[in-house]
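Standup notes
- DV: blocked on the single-chain target, sequence here:
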Amino acid sequence: MATKKYTVTLPEELAEEIRREVGSGGFSAYVTKAIERQHERDRLGELVAWMQEESGGPLTPEEWAAAEAELSDVERQLDGPAASGPHGPPLAG
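- DV (later): unblocked, structure below
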Protein backbone atom coordinates (compact mmCIF):
# COMPACT_ATOMS: atom_id res chain seq x y z
CA MET A 1 0.00 0.00 0.00
CA ALA A 2 1.31 3.43 -0.88
CA THR A 3 1.92 5.76 2.03
CA LYS A 4 2.12 9.53 2.37
CA LYS A 5 3.49 11.58 5.23
CA TYR A 6 1.04 13.83 7.09
CA THR A 7 1.46 16.24 9.94
CA VAL A 8 -0.95 15.86 12.85
CA THR A 9 -1.11 17.51 16.23
CA LEU A 10 -1.37 15.19 19.24
CA PRO A 11 -1.33 15.76 22.98
CA GLU A 12 2.35 15.51 23.91
CA GLU A 13 1.88 13.25 26.94
CA LEU A 14 -0.20 10.76 24.96
CA ALA A 15 2.19 10.72 22.01
CA GLU A 16 5.23 10.21 24.24
CA GLU A 17 3.51 7.45 26.21
CA ILE A 18 2.66 5.59 22.98
CA ARG A 19 6.19 6.12 21.61
CA ARG A 20 7.66 4.62 24.81
CA GLU A 21 5.35 1.61 24.52
CA VAL A 22 5.85 0.86 20.82
CA GLY A 23 9.20 2.48 20.07
CA SER A 24 9.78 5.18 17.49
CA GLY A 25 9.61 2.69 14.62
CA GLY A 26 6.18 1.43 15.68
CA PHE A 27 4.55 4.82 16.22
CA SER A 28 3.20 5.26 12.67
CA ALA A 29 1.87 1.70 12.61
CA TYR A 30 0.13 2.27 15.95
CA VAL A 31 -1.49 5.49 14.73
CA THR A 32 -2.53 3.82 11.48
CA LYS A 33 -4.22 0.98 13.40
CA ALA A 34 -6.01 3.49 15.62
CA ILE A 35 -7.31 5.41 12.60
CA GLU A 36 -8.38 2.17 10.88
CA ARG A 37 -10.24 1.07 14.00
CA GLN A 38 -12.02 4.41 14.35
CA HIS A 39 -12.93 4.41 10.66
CA GLU A 40 -14.50 0.97 11.00
CA ARG A 41 -16.42 2.10 14.11
CA ASP A 42 -17.70 5.13 12.20
CA ARG A 43 -18.86 2.90 9.36
CA LEU A 44 -20.60 0.57 11.82
CA GLY A 45 -22.28 3.60 13.39
CA GLU A 46 -23.58 4.61 9.96
CA LEU A 47 -24.89 1.08 9.43
CA VAL A 48 -26.69 1.12 12.79
CA ALA A 49 -28.26 4.49 11.98
CA TRP A 50 -29.40 3.18 8.60
CA MET A 51 -30.80 0.01 10.17
CA GLN A 52 -32.75 2.05 12.72
CA GLU A 53 -34.11 4.29 9.98
CA GLU A 54 -35.12 1.33 7.82
CA SER A 55 -36.68 -0.64 10.67
CA GLY A 56 -38.48 2.35 12.09
CA GLY A 57 -36.99 2.18 15.55
CA PRO A 58 -34.14 1.33 17.84
CA LEU A 59 -32.30 -1.96 17.59
CA THR A 60 -33.46 -4.96 19.58
CA PRO A 61 -31.08 -6.55 22.11
CA GLU A 62 -30.43 -9.31 19.56
CA GLU A 63 -29.52 -6.76 16.88
CA TRP A 64 -27.18 -4.99 19.34
CA ALA A 65 -25.53 -8.33 20.15
CA ALA A 66 -25.03 -8.99 16.43
CA ALA A 67 -23.54 -5.50 15.95
CA GLU A 68 -21.19 -5.99 18.90
CA ALA A 69 -20.11 -9.37 17.50
CA GLU A 70 -19.41 -7.76 14.13
CA LEU A 71 -17.39 -5.01 15.81
CA SER A 72 -15.35 -7.61 17.69
CA ASP A 73 -14.66 -9.44 14.42
CA VAL A 74 -13.50 -6.23 12.76
CA GLU A 75 -11.25 -5.37 15.71
CA ARG A 76 -9.69 -8.85 15.65
CA GLN A 77 -9.02 -8.48 11.92
CA LEU A 78 -7.44 -5.06 12.39
CA ASP A 79 -5.42 -6.07 15.43
CA GLY A 80 -3.96 -9.28 14.10
CA PRO A 81 -2.16 -11.74 16.36
CA ALA A 82 0.66 -9.42 17.52
CA ALA A 83 -1.37 -6.32 18.34
CA SER A 84 -1.98 -5.07 21.82
CA GLY A 85 -3.38 -1.98 23.50
CA PRO A 86 -6.68 -0.55 24.63
CA HIS A 87 -9.84 -0.93 22.65
CA GLY A 88 -12.70 1.52 22.60
CA PRO A 89 -15.76 1.05 24.79
CA PRO A 90 -18.35 -1.55 23.83
CA LEU A 91 -21.47 -0.44 22.05
CA ALA A 92 -24.24 0.58 24.45
CA GLY A 93 -27.88 -0.12 23.82
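- Follow-up: Residues 23-79 form one domain.
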